[in-house]
Amino acid sequence: MRPLFVLYVSDQARAREFYHAVLQMEPSLDVPGMTEFPLGDSALLGLMPAAGIKRLLGELLPDPASASGVPRAELYLMVASAQPYIDRALINGARQLSPLHARDWGHAVAYFLDPDNHVLAIAEVPGG
Predict the structure, then answer these.
(1) Are the CB atoms for 60 and 105 separated by under 8 Å?
(2) Distance (Å, rounded) from C-alpha 72 to C-alpha 109?
(3) What does the pLDDT profile of the chain (128 residues) look like in tens digits?
(4) Residue 11 falls in which region: left (phi positive, over 0), alpha (psi -120 to 50) or beta
(5) How many helices (H) and strands (E) does the chain have?
(6) Quick check: 112 and 123 in contact, CB under 8 A?
(7) Torsion, Cα of 6, 103, 18, 115 (10° steps)
(8) Got the DSSP string for 71-127?
(9) Could you count the other beta carbons within 10 Å of the beta carbon of residue 50?
């Protein structure tokens, strides 16, 4: 099994450029309606326009656009060295919520909002 976690975004190109810059990698898929980035060997991050999922699933799906600006998901990246990711997130428009700080669960984590107000957590974890 290889999970694909999909974030609904307002602007696929903007989200793709943000995550391309932060992750420092090319998407493994980039077509109208879906961009995917590999997260290690076992997971994928998907970026799908909110309007696309609404068209796909129709009226029974609550409109993701109605929650615009409200954090609805968190991407928690565990990396060996957090500062380069933090720098790239800030340079590319992320809003910092909390600086890199040792947390009581054993990770040093910095928190941001991405361009669609999803929470991006960058955790420095030995061997991350």
Answers:
(1) no
(2) 19
(3) 899 999 999 999 999 999 999 999 999 999 999 999 999 999 999 999 988 888 888 888 888 888 777 888 999 999 999 999 999 999 999 999 999 999 999 999 999 999 999 999 999 998 76
(4) beta
(5) 3, 8
(6) no
(7) 80
(8) ---EEEEEES-HHHHHHHHHHTTPEEEEEEEE-TTS-EEEEEE-TTS-EEEEEE-TT
(9) 20
